[in-house]
Amino acid sequence: MFETKTLTGTAVALLVFTAGSFAQAPMSAEKLALYRGADREQILLEGARKEGKVVFYSGMIANQALRPLMEGFSKKYPFVKAQYVRIGPSEMLQKVSAESNANQFAVDVFENVGVETASRAANLNMPFWSPEIAAYPEQFRKEPTYWVPVRMNYLGPAYNTSMVSAAELPKSYEDLLDPKWKGKMAWSNSLQGAVLFVTNLRTAWGEEKAMSYLQKLSKQDVALIASSPRTVVDRVIAGEYAIALSIFTHHPILDAKKGAPVKPLNLGPIASTVSGIMLARKPPNPHAAMLLMDYILSAEGQKVLRDAEYFPVRTDVSALDSLNEVVPSKSGTAENYISPEATTADLKNSQDIFDKLFGSR
Amino acid sequence: MRAVERLVALPLQSFLFVCTVPMLVILVWTSFHLVGADGSYNEFSGRNYAALATAPDFYTALLNAVVYSLGSAFVAITIGAAQAWLAERSNAPCRQVLYISSIVSLGVPYVLYIVAWILFLGKNGPFNTWLRQIFGGTGVYVDVYSMGGMIFVEGMLWAPLAFLLLSSVFRNADASYEEAAAVCGAGIPTTMRRVTLGMAKPALFALGLLVFVRAAESFEVPALVGLPGYVTVLTTSIFKKVQHTVPPDVGSAAAFACILLLLMAVLLKLYGRMSAEAHKYRTITGKGFRPRIVRLGKWRPVAGIFVLIVPCITVVIPVLVLLWTALLPFYQQVSIKAFSAISLQNFRLVLESGVYYDTMLNSLILSAAVATAVVSVTSIMGWGIARRIAGSRSIDFLAAVPLAFPALVMGFAFLQIYLHILPWLYGSLLSLVLVASIAFIPYGIRYSQIGVIQIHPELEEAASLAGAGHWTIFRRIILPLLAPALISCWLFVFLLAARAMSLLLLLVGPDSPVVAVALFDLWNNGQLNELAALGCIWTAIMTMFSATFYWVARRFQLPFT
Q1: Which of A277, B77, B209, B546 is the most buried (most CB within 10 A)?
Q2: Where are the domains of chain A?
Q3: Which of A63, A118, A228 sits opposite B524 (nearest CB)?
Q4: Beta strand pairing status for A53-58 and A81-86?
């Protein structure tokens, strides 16, 4: 028994040797993440086969995007069990921070909205390289690469079509201050909701103009929904509120297709943000993790997201035409790109402004 | 005698110590540290508390929390007690409806329940629309996003539990006192006020305290109902610290939680003092007991209307709203146009996606395991506390610790414990069972304690005189008499565990999805109609479970009635 084992071991070592590969100890996760050798693919495949598993935390909507994405990956690499946890940004940060502090990562790869800078500050992730990065817009190809955007988000208002007639449709942010909208608007308490609304106006208009506007808006009794911007759209569809502020503008289009009385409201500046994919600082399955990142960043993965009606970032995969009306560059509405760095840098101030003007009664 | 008691108490104490003290330590430790961007604990300082005391909204949140919790406890206990008395002690018509409806409503997870109420009472919901049709005008007659709305929804959430708990109290009440009152010429109202309610006082107080504490710690109703109207309570402040800030301000959140903990400790102390006089209320005595049924006479139809209206509010409306939502592609009001859009598409989606099967199975396993664990441990503890065995005070104190923890905070503490001490458990279903069992120990204790308090020690003394040992007494006397309380306890914990959401939010792993968390996720993802479909299916399953269980329990109790 013992001998057979040793024999097999020798045979394997010999095979590896003759195949011309390294007979050395496996690469560390840090090295592997940045490895650019010609045999990268082969090393990843071999390693992933042994690992047999990969864990992804993400904020994408499960049945719409996350599940098809993971299924696509499993089809391509059937020997890796692709597992995911769908989780909101704050909970994800808490979870990964706790894993990181205990030095017990369960997660390999993670992605969410507005967490890139915080993850970096908390030392949750590490730099990586993927051949797919070359297909991304230049502004995202900084080295060392701690994150690469996998989806674009456009955030602006939307309205209930049976509550707001074409004639009274707000044409500017100023129009939202009309007393007739008092108590009829809502926004989300999440990072992409009310606080991003504040950041958007501050960065687009400058502090003074934004502040004077927000002061007037605070008299309008904008309802605070303790959930994602997506839920705010639902409340508007249900007729609870006439106008949603700072929601993902493609959501109303998807709902309108099902017949819901809701439409995006193209008021510039529309805020645009990105969601980056990140590699855990100590991934338990580093080979499979790199394969998963490659897949999500690849044209194939981005097409899955495109078909899920998300906005891909890759230069060679564009969003569905049906979404054109909410892509500022195509609809002619002013766009205000807020980078992850800017989001975080302005967060505290925007939060304070929000608390001061709209805080509890 | 004392030595034997110590032998019983010691393992219980150590067990509770291991279960509760680590999370307490983690919480207090965190509250005294400034937590860095990477989640590391920096300097030891009291600054979190200082910041709290000067925060403008702290006192508002505190006051709101008290009003909200008192209100919810009042609503739940009033409605629950009235139902329980009618069901157990009167000849009101359709009494069975109360049991059925309570069981169904217990099966509805919080998130679903609240969503249903928001849809129903919302500005554009059916209720306001009807009021507008009746009274004219275009205004909003009832604003659910207010303190009143919060109290109503939370109170209604707890009314069925209050009912089930109190019905066992009224069922087991010693009729001789009431008969004595009647002999002395007291009418029904006087007897009820001075005798029936008097005897139920410890149970009412214990339950009121339970609902008060749970409301003070609740997160779902303050977040979903309170926040849109900017009504903040202590938990929403904690929630904001953790959810609105990047990185999460864990230090101040912990400080908030510690204050909450302190408040709860004071309340529990009060309760302890009150129950020190509990011997007055032992009602299951060595004499035969059979509670008297009060004939309502001309009030019977009125009682009948009450018996039917409350279940309408607690069950029929929420379930109908959910069913309606589940049949539509997107939520809309009841109209002819909406009727034409009805389809079973959402149900098909839920049933055809394999993910939901695993999720539901996990939830069932979790709930059954938690209920079994809690009942086995707490029946002995409850007896020990009620009989004041050596060491019972520390058991009582330790067992109450989880009660003082808001679910969100406890989930956070256990995340730390798992990652630092038990990494191999992290993310597994077993880890969820463990944390939920600890969280629900206090409920088990209250149940068995209420049960034991009612059993007169003369029964045990008689057995002891007849030569029975401690274990025999527990097994042959206490357990059978306690059985109804324990069975209700199992059911109660089973349903609580199936509903637990914020407790498990951070602990769920890829292999351990559970229904309550999945429902919350669907709500956040805007899959309202899929949520309603999954909710309807899940409610049906839970109802089947609890109804079967309840039926068995009733059969089991036959010898007593």
Answers
A1: B77
A2: 24-151+275-307, 153-273+323-355
A3: A228
A4: parallel
Interface check B364 vs A, CB under 8 A = no
Residues of A in contact with B246 (CB under 8 A): 89-90, 93, 114-115, 117-118, 191, 344, 347
Whole-angstrom distance, CA of residue B49 vs CA of residue B416: 22
pLDDT tens digits along A163-194: 999 899 999 999 999 999 998 999 998 878 89
Domain A153-273+323-355 in CATH 3.40.30.10: no
Cβ A259–B341 below 8 Å, yes or no? yes
Contact (Cβ atoms closer than 8 angstroms) between residue B197 and residue B223:
no
Is A205 strand, coil or helix?
helix
Q: Which two tokens stand for residue A233?
A: 């759209």
Locate the chain B residue with the closest alpha carbon to A233: B526
DSSP A113: S
Residue B560 tokens read as 């007593």
H helix runs in A83-133, sequence order: 89-101, 116-121
Does the CB of A94 have a partner CB in chain B at under 8 Å?
Answer: yes
Please give the average per-residue pLDDT across A227-249, as a whole number: 90
- Shortest distance, CA B118 to any CA of chain A (angstroms): 10
Say whether B387 sits in a helix, a strand or coil.
coil
Interface probe for B, chosen from A235, A349, A350 (most Cβ of B below 10 Å), is A235
Which residues 225-264 of B have a C-beta within 8 angstroms of A?
227-232, 236, 239-240, 242-248, 250
Helix residue ranges, H only, chain A: 2-18, 29-34, 40-51, 67-76, 89-101, 116-121, 194-205, 207-217, 229-237, 250-257, 286-297, 299-307, 328-331, 340-358
Q: Tell me if A102 and B419 make a contact (CB, 8 A cut-off).
A: yes
Report the pLDDT value the prediction gives residue A137, as an integer from 0 to 100.
92
Q: Count of A–B CB contacts within 8 Å? A: 166
Q: Which residue of B has its CA nearest to A120?
A: B38
Distance CA A135, CA A132 (A): 6
Q: Residue B514 in contact with residue B502, Cβ under 8 Å?
A: no
For residues B121, B126, B130 and B136, what is the CA-based torsion angle, rounded to 10 degrees?
A: 80
- What chain B holds in terms of domains, given with CATH numbers, is 2-324+331-560 (1.10.3720.10)
Residues of A in contact with B332 (CB under 8 A): 237-239, 260
CB contact under 8 A, A223 and B228: yes
DSSP B171-214: HT--HHHHHHHHHTT--HHHHIIIIIHHHHHHHHHHHHHHHHHH
Q: What is the pLDDT of residue A247?
A: 93
Residues B341-380 as b or e (16 or more Cβ within 10 Å = b)? eeeebbbebbeeeeebeebbebbbebbbbbbebbbebbbb
Task: Describe the crossing of helices A340-358 and A194-205 by its angle, rounded to 10 degrees.
Answer: 110
For the stretch B306-329, pLDDT in tens is 888 888 888 888 888 889 889 988
**CB of A185 closer than 8 Å to CB of A242:** yes
ipTM: 0.75
Given an 8 Å threshold on Cβ–Cβ distance, is B123 in contact with A67? no
Q: Kindly report the CATH number that applies to the domain delimited by A24-151+275-307.
A: 3.40.190.10
CB contact under 8 A, A238 and B223: no
The answer to whether B247 contacts A118, with C-beta atoms less than 8 Å apart, is: yes
pLDDT digits (tens, 9 = 90+) for B252-262: 778 887 887 78
